[in-house]
Structure formats: C-alpha cells, structure tokens
Design a protein that fits this description.
By secondary structure, the protein is of the alpha/beta class. It contains 12 helices and 17 strands. 33% of the residues lie in helices and 16% in strands. Strands 1, 4, 5, 6, 7, 8, 11, 12 and 15 form a 9-stranded mixed beta sheet that branches. Strands 2-3 form a two-stranded antiparallel ribbon. Strand 13 and strand 14 form a beta hairpin. It starts with a helix and ends in a 19-residue tail after the last strand.
C-alpha cells in the first residue's frame, strides 16, 4: 500500500521514527505498539469534570477562611490574582461543608463525597494543580490537548497514537458524556492534526451505541461486506497513488465500524452483571443511573482492551448557588466513581488502569455574588486546585502538595497541567518529550515545550 517513491521519500525526509510510523500504517493503525519503557498502566479512564469543581468544598480544607468569612482578604495576598469575573477584594465565603479524615491515609475529604472517602486509601490526591487559563475553553483545551488553541490532538488521541489499542472490535478511544457537555465540546477528544483514526468516538449509553451503527432492514452482513470490499479496493488504489495516511485511516474506520456492529451491542448488554454490582454503581435509579452506567461501561471497555475512556460529567461551573449545585453533582458522581475503583480493584484491573478525576481549574475562596434568591458562588481559579488519581502505577493513600491558608496559591509540590500530562504518559511507558508528531514543520507533543513527570505521584518514582 506504499509505493517505492513514497517509501524513499519517507526514508530521506522524515527520519526513522516517522518512517516506522508510516510502515506501521500499512497495517491496522490501531495495532498495539510498544512504549518507550515498561509501563505500569495499559489503559486510562479519565473522569472529566468540566466547569471547575471547587477544591475548597471537596478536597482542600481551609478552616482559616472562617476568620475571614464575609470580609475581603488582605490586598497583599490577592494583588496578583487573575480572575475571570470578580475583583480580588471580593468577600470571602468559608466552605459550609464538614471535612474529616478517612482511611489509614487520613485524607481529608468533604462530607459531599462519602463514597469516595471510603476509597481514600486508593486515592492519590494532588492539591497543588495549577494552569495558565482562567476561562473554560482554553482551560479545557490546555488540560486535554496541551495548548489553549483549537486544532491540537487530545490526550486520548496521543495515547492511542503511541500505544494503539488492544481491542480489535471497539475504538481505541471512547467518550461518554452526561450532564452539561464541556465548554470546548468535541475539541476535548479531537485527533487534531493526527490521523483521524485516533479521534475519540462518542458512545451513547442506550440504544445504538453510535447512531446509524445498525444496518437498515433487509441489508444483510454479506451485502455490507461485499460493499466494503469494493470501497476498500478503491481506497487502497488511491492510497497507493498518493500515500495519504488519511485514506488508510478511512479504510480502518470502515473495517472497525463493521466489527463494532457485533461488539458494541454486546458491550451494552448488562445481563451478565450481577444485580448487586448494578446497585453499587447506582444503575437503574436516580440520580446516579446515567453516570453510573457510564462508569460501568468504562470498566467493561478497558476490560475489552479499549485504551482510553473519557467519562465526562458537567457542569461544575458554579458562579452562584454553589452549595446546592455541588450537592447535586456529587450525588450524581460520587457513588459511581467509588464503585468503579472498587470494581476495577476486585477484578485485578486497577493496577493496570490509570483513573483520573478532575476539571480544568478550581474555584476562588471569594464569592462572586450573594443574593438571597440565588445564593453565593465562586469564580474560576487557575492558581491552585485539586485532582485525584488512582491505580496504574500512582501512589495510593497519599496527598501530594499543599496550598496556603486561604486556598489561593500552591506552596508545596505545585503541579502544572503539563506535569500532569507528562506523568500520565510516564505511567503508560512514554517519555513525553519523545512521543512526537511532525506537523507544520516541527515536532509537536502533548506537553508542548514544558512539563516533567512528577516522581511524588508515582509508586516507583522516576528511574
């Protein structure tokens, strides 16, 4: 499928790494590939919480704020803040939530997350996250693609580009969404300038997993196979003439769609799952049904070799009535997320599956507004926020990093989103500086030109 002229052009112009990629493209572009070094994780489930969950009300207890409740913080500590909607001299609102320590690790977790608190010894809580963006679109893009502009490949696309997939009948990168969709939309799972084979495939939790996956009535699999064979031969001829890798991606997509017609309905058939497990995930009851179903499907997907699953639930963008909104979102997500960790662990999958929970930034300790008919809210806060990781080679039962007494700035073990990305790739066996793709005259990578894997997050540290 690669003629001599294109082969020699690749060898002389792109270098050995690009040549290896082009040779691999003559087969299935999602075939499993070896990473740079032995990996601790084989797959990723990213529990994406777009909108910016409030770390002050969930994972980062700040009792000192009670002394400042209803008053502005000193100008000396707020003068350099970059805020989206409020002034630095806005009044403080201390969290009304109660915090307590859980597990042998003694992790402090809010009363809004009782089920995750029960898994405290599985969690690696990172409190010193920070980002460069204080609005949603650029913040989500920076977290998921490594840049604040549209058009770059998402994290899941980079992972499947680097590792391929262990599933031959399902996409390597799958997306499940509930609640309000992320602000940056499908750009969070785009392939960007990578071949389209690596883009995320949105799945639905009921009916056809993908619209129009089923054949029309009277159209048999044999008829479809014959039609696909003709299309494939035409595409192969054109690909041989042009060397266009997108044609190879198109061929692979047709073939994958054909195989998915059998595999995807089986994926959604939960009849083999015990009733007690469905209850643990909160399936078939509200408000947890949809998110619980998505978390259960994420487990079933990694079990079947899917490489990267994004489970998105939004929005956590609580500019007003934050206490009520947080309770609602936590009631939806807390039990299913904890059930996912327990289920993966019971099946021996947690060690090889990296689970990540978090959004694009956090929230301020100051209130955005407080009206009797609405209730207070919090503004976007990029300087410090919390996320957690579990399984897949990260340390369990630890809290890494700390913030100042007001929750304004990280003071120990600050972790930039590029550092988080580098750490995720490290768990998957990649040196993030070497997982690159030649585009527009230079080698691009998920971490752009920055980032370092964080040793304190890793079970075995850095070699």
């Amino acid at each position: 499928m690669m003629n001599r002229r294109h082969f020699l052009h690749a060898a002389s112009g792109f270098g050995s790494l690009a040549l290896a990629d082009l040779i691999a493209a003559t087969g299935n572009p999602l075939s499993p590939k070896a990473p740079h070094f032995p990996a601790s994780a084989r797959s990723v489930i990213f529990l994406f919480m777009p909108g910016g969950p409030s770390q002050i009300d969930l994972f980062d207890h700040k009792p000192e704020l009670r002394k400042w409740h209803g008053k502005p913080l000193p100008a000396s500590v707020t003068k350099n803040l970059k805020l989206a909607f409020i002034k630095p001299n806005a009044n403080v609102v201390a969290s009304p939530r109660s915090f307590s320590r859980h597990g042998q690790s003694g992790a402090e977790i809010s009363d809004l997350l009782p089920h995750l608190a029960g898994r405290a010894d599985d969690l690696c809580i990172a409190r010193g996250l920070h980002t460069d963006a204080f609005n949603h679109d650029p913040g989500e893009l920076l977290l998921m693609t490594g840049g604040m502009q549209f058009g770059r490949p998402s994290m899941g696309a980079w992972v499947t580009y680097g590792l391929g997939s262990e599933s031959s009948n399902l996409p390597g990168f799958v997306v499940l969404t509930s609640g309000t969709g992320p602000s940056a939309g499908s750009n969070n799972w785009s392939n960007g300038f990578l071949p389209s084979t690596y883009q995320g495939t949105p799945f639905r939790g009921s009916g056809d997993p993908i619209l129009y996956l089923s054949n029309p009535e009277g159209f048999t699999p044999e008829m479809q196979r014959s039609r696909l064979d003709v299309i494939r031969r035409m595409n192969e001829k054109r690909q041989g003439e042009t060397g266009d890798v997108e044609i190879e991606a198109r061929i692979a997509s047709y073939e994958l769609a054909f195989r998915m017609q059998m595999a995807a309905p089986e994926l959604l058939d939960l009849s083999s799952e015990p009733q007690r497990l469905l209850e643990q995930y909160g399936v078939n009851r509200e408000p947890t049904h949809q998110y619980g179903l998505h978390c259960l499907l994420a487990r079933r997907m990694v079990e079947r070799g899917v490489r990267f699953v994004m489970v998105s639930h939004g929005s956590w963008d609580d500019h007003n009535d934050i206490d009520k909104s947080l309770q609602k979102n936590c009631q939806v997500t807390d039990q299913p997320a904890a059930a996912l960790l327990a289920d993966l662990k019971q099946r021996g999958l947690l060690d090889s599956t990296l689970v990540i929970w978090g959004g694009e930034f956090g929230r301020t300790p100051m209130t955005q507004q407080q009206r009797p008919d609405i209730g207070y809210g919090r503004d976007h806060h990029p300087n410090c926020y919390s996320m957690w990781l579990a399984g897949g080679g990260v340390r369990a039962g630890v809290t890494v990093g700390s913030t100042d007494e007001f929750g304004l700035e990280g003071v120990e073990d600050r972790i930039h989103v590029h550092d988080l990305q580098a750490t995720i790739l490290h768990c998957l066996g990649f040196d993030h500086t070497r997982l690159t793709y030649l585009h527009a005259g230079r080698n691009f990578r998920l971490t752009d030109v920055a980032g370092n894997a964080v040793a304190k997050l890793l079970k075995k540290g850095l070699a």
